[in-house]
Automatic annotation (TrEMBL):
The keyword Zinc-finger does not apply. The keyword GTP-binding does not apply. Signal peptide: none annotated. GO terms for cellular component: chromosome. This is Protein kinase domain-containing protein. Gene3D superfamilies: P-loop containing nucleotide triphosphate hydrolases, Transferase(Phosphotransferase) domain 1. Belongs to the DNA2/NAM7 helicase family. GO terms for molecular function: 5'-3' DNA helicase activity; ATP binding; hydrolase activity; protein kinase activity. Residues 10-281 form the Protein kinase domain. SMART domains: S_TKc (SM00220).
Length: 1141
C-alpha cells in the first residue's frame, strides 16, 4: 500500500506497524492547508464485528479526551473503496517507552517522573469514563521534547457507550493485562492501575515482567527502593479489590515518596535577617518581627512551592523567587548558606518572566537564625555553580536563537529586495505586427517605437496579448535590433492565439512564484515545520548527533571504477544524517551521486529521494548518470520541457503521467470485469438463498413453539415429582415425551445451523463468526444474515451506478494537479531544480528520506532551503571554490546597512558556510581529477586547491596534437607589448578588440590544421564580459557550419560554462588599463571555473603584465599565482608567449 492515496485524501508514506487487526501508516493529509504529516490507523477485516467495535470505541474515546499526554485525533471515517475504517491521528517524533527502557536498561532516575506523567494522562481518560485496557511501554511515546503521549485506545471500555452483542474482554497484552482481563471477566478502572504498576516495575528495574508471576517478581526484586516496592505491590494485586481505588490514589503515594526523595538528596540553608523580618511584617506575611515567625513562613513557602534562583549584579548577590515574592540574598561569610536581606511583592506577569529566566531548585530548604552554625555538608556552592552554569547555557541558547533570527532575517531581506527589483523592472511594449522566423524557433515582433530597455536579458520570460483578450506566456527574450524584438518560442505556444497587434510585457509570475517558495521555505525553517524539525540546528552546528540511526553498509559497488576517495565519501554519506562532498573540477562528483542513489534504493526500494541542483544542466547530468547504471528505477524529471534535454524525455512528467493513467485504467477495467463475473453468479442464486433464509425463520418459529412446549412439560414433570404421592406412570410418560421432544429440538437446531452455514458461505462470511449456545443467539444470527442479504442485494442493484461513476472518474483521470502529485509520489527519484521542486504541490508537500543537492555552492541560502525543508537526511555536493551564488540585484551601501547585510553575504553559499563548520567525519573532498591534461590539472590544483588535487594516470596522454602549441597544455598569449591592448567601456560592460581579433585568428588557424588532419574538436571561448562575448560572436560567427566544419565552437560567459568541458578553451582576459583595475576578475572562483573547462589545451589571451600588478586591494591576486605557476613551477607543460609590438 506504500505511496498510495487512501480515502481520497491521505498519501501513505511509510508503514509503522501492521497486525491482524490494523495497519498504522505515516501519511500526508492532502486536504490540510500544508499537507500535514499525520498517522493513519486502518482497521483490517472490516466485516468483523469486533474490529468495527474497536473503531467505534477508539474514536469515541479520543474525541472525549482533551489532554496533552494523549494522542490527538484529527478525523475518522470509512473508505468505500478499500472497505476499511480509518482514524487520523497526530504524528509524533520520538521513541516508545519500550525502546527507551531497553536502551538504558531501566529508567531509575527519570522513571518516577515519567510514570507520574503517564498516570496524569490515564486519569484524564478515567475522568471521562474510559478505560484504556492495553497500557504497555510500546503504547507510550516519549517525544523528543521530553513529553509523553499515551497511544492506542483501540480496545478501551467506555462506561457510557458500551455496545451490545460484541465485547473486547479477551484483548490486551500479557504480562501488562490484569488477571481479570486475561480471565475475560468484567473489567473496570483498576485494570489500568495493574498495567501501570507493571510498567513502573519495568521502568525502575529494566527487568522484563513475567506473565504468570508479576506479583512474586516484584516482591523478590531487591533493587527497587522499599517505599516504591510497596506502591507497586498495591498496584499489581491479583484481586482488583485489593488495589488502589483510583489512579490518582497511586499517583499521590508515588509523589509523596518522590518529593521526600528529592528533598533529602540536597539540603540548602538560608539565614534570616532583621531587615528581612521588617519587610515580611510590612507585607503582612508575619505578625511579629521575630526570627521564629520568619522561619515558620520561610519553611512553608520554600518547601511547598518550587524555588527559582538567579545571580544578581555580581557573584555574591542572588535572587530567589517563591510564590509572588522576590527575595534578595547574599552569600554568607561562612560560604555555606545564603543570607536573606529583603523581600518584595512581585506582579504575576513579572514573576512568570522572572521564573522563566531563573534556575529551578526542587530541593529541601531550611531557614535558620542569622547566628546559627551551618553544617559542613551543606552544598549551597554547588547549587549556585549549577545555577550559574544553567544561566550561561541559557545565554548561549538565547544568543543562538538571536543568531538564527538574524540569519533568517538577512535571507528574508534579500528576498524583499528581489521582489522590489522585480516590480521596478516591469514594463510594457506596444507592437503592430509579428512573424515567425524561418526555422520556426522564434517570434519576430515589430515594435511601434524603437526603445533601449536596460532590464531585458536573454531567456527572460515574456507575455503577449492573445486574441481572446488575455495575456499568454509566449517564450523568452532572445534579442533586440532596432524595432525588431526576437522571442524564443516556448514549445506549447499556439501561434494562432497570438493577437496581430498589442502589447508585450515581462512574465514575472515565475519569478514571483519562486520568491514565494523561498519565503515559505524560510518560514518552515523558522517554525520547525520542515521534515526534519531540527534543520536550523543542523545548519548552525552540523557536527552534533549527526550519525544516523539508519546506517547503510555497502557490500558491493555498482560502478567498478570508483577511486578510494569516492568510496569513502559514499560510505560516510550512508551513515550520516547530513554529509558534504566537495567536488573540484573533473573529480567525478556526478558519478558519486549516481552511486549513492543506487545504493540507497538497493538497500530499500521504498526510499524516496529528491535530487536537485541550482541549474537544469546539473540535474540532467546527475539523473542521466543514474539511469545509465541501472534501468529498473522509477525516475521522474520535473521542469519546463524546453529546459530539459531530449535524452530524458521518457522521465518527464507528461510521459510518466500518461503511463500511470493507462495502468490505472487497466486496473479499473480488470477490477470491474471481476466484479461483474462475481455478481453474475451471485444474482442467479440469490433468490434461492433468500428462500432458504425464509425457511430458516419458519423453522425457528416452529423451534420456538417446540421449546415453549418442552419447557411446560419439564415444569409439569418437576411439579409431579414434588407431589406427596407421585404418579410414576405419568412421570414415565412425561420423561419419554421430553426425550422425544429434545431429539426433535436438536434436529431443528442442527438443520438451522446447516442452513445458516450454507448462507454464510454464499455471503463469504467467516465460519467462526457465529455461535449457537441458545435460541436467542440463533435468532440474532438469522437477523444478521437477513441484513447481509439485503446489503448483497443493494450492491447488485448498484452495479450499474458504479459503472457510471467509474466512467465519470476515468474521464477526469489525469486532469488535475492531484494526479500529478500521485504520479510523483510513486517515483523513487524525483529530479528538479531547487525552485522547480515546488511547482507541483504533491512534490513540494511530500516528505523525502533523502534530499541530494548537486552544485550546492551555487545556490543562495533561500534557494537551497526549498528542497532541504522536505528531507529527513541531506547530501550536499558542490565546490565553494567555483562559482558563487548570484543575487541579481544592486544594493546600495545605505540599504546594506539598513538591512544588516554585510559585504560578501550575498555571495556566500550555505554549502560553504556548513562546510567550514563541519568536522572531517561529515565532509570529504574528491581528490583525483579525470578531466584535464596533467598540465592543466596541476595548474588548477596548485593555484586554487593548495596542491591537494591529484591527476589520474591517463591524463598525461590527453594530447591536443595542435602543432602551434605542441607539448604544451597551458599557454598564456600576452598582449602586454601592444599599444592596442587596452580595454573599451561600453555601458557597464567591457570589450577588448585586440584579444577578440587574436582569438578569431587562432580559431581559423586551428580549423585549417584540423581540416588537413581530418579531425574534429570542440572549442570553448570564455569571457567574463557580455560585450566581449557579443564582439567575439560577431567576428567568429560560431554557428556558420560552412565556415567551421571541423571545429564546434561555443562562445559564452563563465557562468554558462560551469559543469561543462571542451577539448580546447580560450580565455579572454579583456581587462587592460593604466589604473591596473581588473574589477570582478580578482575573484579566484570565477577564474577557477574558466581555466578548468579545458581538457587538452588552455589558451589565455590578455595583458599579463597589467594583471600581474593589478590593484586587488585587500584581496589576493589570482592572476599573479597563475603567472608564477606558468613561469616558474611547471615549465614542462606551461609557457608564456609575449606577442611582439
Amino acid at each position: 500500500m506504500a505511496s498510495k492515496l487512501f480515502a481520497s485524501r491521505y498519501r501513505l508514506i511509510r508503514l509503522i506497524h501492521g497486525s491482524g487487526q490494523s495497519e498504522v501508516w505515516v501519511a500526508r493529509d492532502l486536504d490540510s492547508e500544508n499537507d500535514t504529516l499525520v498517522v493513519i490507523k486502518i482497521l483490517l477485516g472490516n466485516s468483523d464485528l469486533i474490529l468495527r467495535e474497536f473503531f467505534i470505541r477508539e474514536t469515541e474515546a479520543l474525541t472525549q479526551i482533551k489532554h496533552a499526554g494523549i494522542v490527538k485525533l484529527f478525523d475518522w471515517g470509512f473508505d468505500n473503496v478499500e472497505k476499511k475504517y480509518w482514524i487520523s491521528l497526530e504524528y509524533l517524533e520520538g521513541v516508545t517507552l519500550e525502546e527507551r527502557i531497553k536502551k538504558s536498561n531501566g529508567l531509575k532516575d527519570s522513571g518516577v517522573q515519567l510514570i507520574i506523567d503517564v498516570i496524569d494522562a490515564v486519569a484524564a481518560a478515567h475522568a471521562k469514563g474510559i478505560i484504556h485496557r492495553d497500557l504497555k511501554p510500546s503504547n507510550i511515546m516519549c517525544e523528543d521534547t521530553g513529553d509523553i503521549k499515551v497511544l492506542d485506545f483501540g480496545i478501551c471500555k467506555i462506561k457510557t457507550l458500551l455496545q451490545q452483542g460484541t465485547t473486547v474482554k479477551g484483548f490486551g497484552t500479557p504480562p501488562y493485562s490484569a488477571p481479570e482481563q486475561i480471565g475475560q471477566k468484567d473489567v473496570d478502572f483498576r485494570a489500568d492501575i495493574y498495567s501501570l504498576g507493571v510498567i513502573f516495575f519495568y521502568m525502575l528495574t529494566g527487568e522484563q515482567p513475567i506473565i504468570t508471576s508479576v506479583f512474586e517478581q516484584v516482591q523478590a526484586n531487591a533493587s527497587i527502593p522499599e517505599e516504591y516496592k510497596k506502591i507497586i505491590i498495591n498496584m499489581v494485586q491479583y484481586e482488583k479489590e485489593d488495589r488502589y481505588p483510583s489512579v490518582l490514589h497511586a499517583k499521590r503515594e508515588i509523589q509523596k515518596v518522590y518529593k521526600k526523595e528529592l528533598k533529602y538528596k540536597s539540603t540548602y540553608y538560608v539565614k534570616t535577617t532583621q531587615n528581612l523580618c521588617n519587610g515580611m511584617v510590612s507585607l503582612g506575611l508575619i505578625d511579629f518581627n521575630t526570627e521564629s515567625e520568619a522561619k515558620m513562613w520561610l519553611d512553608n513557602a520554600f518547601n511547598d512551592s518550587l524555588i527559582s534562583i538567579e545571580q544578581g549584579r555580581d557573584s555574591v548577590n542572588w535572587v530567589l523567587y517563591t510564590h509572588q515574592y522576590r527575595i534578595n540574598a547574599v552569600m554568607d561569610k561562612d560560604g555555606r548558606s545564603l543570607r536573606l536581606k529583603s523581600i518584595h511583592y512581585t506582579l504575576s506577569a513579572d514573576m512568570a518572566k522572572n521564573k522563566e529566566l531563573s534556575f529551578e531548585c526542587n530541593n529541601c530548604w531550611i531557614s535558620i537564625p542569622g547566628r546559627a552554625i551551618v553544617p559542613k555538608d551543606s552544598n549551597i556552592k554547588l547549587l549556585l555553580e549549577e545555577a550559574e552554569n544553567w544561566r550561561k547555557q541559557q545565554d548561549i541558547k538565547r544568543n543562538k536563537e538571536l543568531e538564527h533570527k538574524r540569519i533568517l532575517a538577512q535571507w528574508e531581506n534579500v528576498l524583499k529586495l528581489q521582489r522590489k527589483a522585480l516590480l521596478e523592472k516591469d514594463f510594457s511594449l506596444s507592437y503592430d505586427s509579428w512573424d515567425i522566423s524561418q526555422d520556426h524557433s522564434k517570434l519576430e515582433v515589430m515594435l511601434v517605437d524603437e526603445k533601449e530597455i536596460s532590464n531585458l536579458y536573454n531567456e527572460q520570460p515574456l507575455l503577449i496579448d492573445s486574441s481572446n483578450g488575455k495575456k499568454i506566456s509566449v517564450g523568452s527574450f532572445a534579442g533586440l535590433e532596432g524595432k525588431k524584438l526576437s522571442i524564443a518560442l516556448a514549445r506549447e505556444v499556439n501561434i494562432d492565439e497570438i493577437k496581430e497587434f498589442g502589447e508585450i510585457s515581462l512574465d514575472n509570475r515565475q519569478v514571483s512564484s519562486a520568491l514565494k517558495r523561498q519565503e515559505d521555505a524560510i518560514r518552515a525553517v523558522r517554525y520547525g515545520d520542515s521534515s526534519n524539525p531540527k534543520l536550523l540546528e543542523i545548519i548552525d552546528n552540523p557536527n552534533v548527533n549527526n550519525e544516523s540511526k539508519e546506517v547503510i553498509n555497502v557490500t558491493e559497488y555498482i560502478q567498478n571504477d570508483l577511486d578510494e576517495a569516492k568510496k569513502e565519501a559514499i560510505k560516510a554519506t550512508l551513515r550520516s544524517d547530513i554529509y558534504l562532498i566537495q567536488g573540484p573540477p573533473g573529480t567525478g562528483k556526478t558519478k558519486v551521486i549516481s552511486e549513492i542513489i543506487v545504493q540507497l534504493l538497493k538497500n530499500d526500494p521504498s526510499t524516496k529521494i529528491l535530487l536537485t541542483s541550482q541549474s537544469n544542466a546539473a540535474v540532467d547530468n546527475a539523473l542521466e548518470a543514474v539511469s545509465k547504471i541501472t534501468g529498473d528505477l522509477t525516475l521522474l524529471r520535473i521542469g519546463r520541457k524546453e529546459k530539459i534535454v531530449d535524452r530524458l524525455i521518457n522521465y518527464q512528467l507528461d510521459g510518466t503521467l500518461n503511463s500511470w493513467i493507462q495502468k490505472t485504467k487497466n486496473k479499473s477495467d480488470s477490477y470491474l470485469e471481476d466484479l461483474y463475473d462475481l455478481n453474475r453468479i451471485d444474482i442467479n442464486i440469490l433468490a434461492e438463498y433468500k428462500t432458504i433464509l425464509r425457511q430458516c425463520f419458519s423453522k425457528y418459529d416452529e423451534l420456538y413453539e417446540l421449546d415453549n412446549e418442552l419447557s411446560k412439560i419439564k415444569y409439569r414433570l418437576f411439579e409431579e415429582k414434588n407431589e406427596e404421592y407421585i404418579n410414576f406412570e405419568l412421570c414415565c410418560t412425561l420423561e419419554k415425551k421430553i426425550h422425544e421432544m429434545d431429539k426433535e429440538k436438536d434436529s431443528y437446531i442442527q438443520d438451522l445451523i446447516n442452513d445458516i452455514n450454507k448462507i454464510m458461505k454464499f455471503l463469504r462470511l467467516p465460519s467462526n463468526r457465529m455461535t449457537y449456545y441458545n435460541l436467542e443467539e440463533i435468532k440474532s444470527n438469522l437477523s444478521v444474515l437477513e441484513k447481509e442479504m439485503e446489503r448483497k442485494l443493494i450492491n447488485l442493484n448498484h452495479l450499474e451506478q458504479v459503472e457510471l461513476i467509474r466512467q465519470e472518474w476515468l474521464s477526469r483521470l489525469g486532469k488535475g494537479r492531484e494526479f500529478e502529485a500521485i504520479c510523483a509520489s510513486e517515483a523513487q527519484v524525483v529530479a528538479s531544480t531547487c525552485l522547480g521542486v515546488s511547482n507541483i504541490p504533491g512534490v513540494w508537500s511530500s516528505e523525502y528520506d533523502w534530499v541530494i543537492v548537486d552544485e550546492a555552492g551555487r545556490a543562495t541560502p533561500p534557494e537551497i532551503l526549498v528542497p532541504l525543508v522536505r528531507g529527513k537526511r541531506i547530501l550536499l555536493v558542490g565546490d565553494h571554490k567555483q562559482l558563487p551564488p548570484v543575487v541579481d540585484i544592486d544594493i546600495s551601501q545605505e540599504e546594506r546597512e539598513r538591512l544588516e547585510l554585510p559585504e560578501g553575504v550575498l555571495e556566500r553559499s550555505l554549502f560553504e558556510d556548513i562546510f567550514h563548520k563541519s568536522n572531517d567525519e561529515i565532509k570529504s573532498i574528491l581528490n583525483i581529477q579525470y578531466r584535464m591534461h596533467t598540465g592543466i590539472g596541476r595548474l588548477v590544483s596548485q593555484v586554487f586547491y593548495d596542491g591537494s588535487i591529484e591527476n589520474a594516470e591517463f591524463t598525461n596522454s590527453l594530447d591536443h596534437s595542435l602543432k602551434s602549441w605542441r607539448e604544451k597544455s597551458v599557454v598564456w598569449v600576452s598582449t602586454s607589448n601592444s599599444e592596442e591592448r587596452y580595454e573599451k567601456s561600453i555601458g557597464r560592460s567591457k570589450q577588448n578588440q585586440l584579444e577578440a581579433r587574436i582569438i578569431s585568428s587562432y580559431c581559423e588557424q586551428i580549423e585549417k590544421e584540423l581540416k588537413l588532419s581530418n579531425q574534429k574538436m570542440s572549442l570553448g571561448i570564455i569571457s567574463g564580459y557580455a560585450e566581449q562575448k557579443n564582439l567575439l560572436e560577431q567576428l567568429i560567427n560560431s554557428k556558420d557550419r560552412n565556415k567551421w566544419n571541423n571545429l564546434t565552437i561555443d562562445i559564452d560567459n563563465i557562468d554558462a560554462f560551469q559543469g561543462q568541458e571542451r577539448e580546447v578553451v580560450m580565455y579572454s582576459v579583456v581587462r587592460s588599463n593604466k589604473r591596473r583595475d581588473i574589477g570582478f576578475l580578482k575573484d579566484f572562483r570565477r577564474l577557477n571555473v574558466a581555466f578548468s573547462r579545458a581538457r587538452k589545451l588552455l589558451l589565455v589571451i590578455g595583458d599579463h603584465e597589467m594583471v600581474l600588478e593589478a590593484n586587488t586591494y585587500n584581496d589576493a591576486n589570482p592572476f599573479a599565482e597563475v603567472i608564477r605557476h606558468i613561469e616558474k613551477i611547471d615549465t614542462d607543460n606551461c609557457v608564456l608567449e609575449v606577442l611582439p609590438k
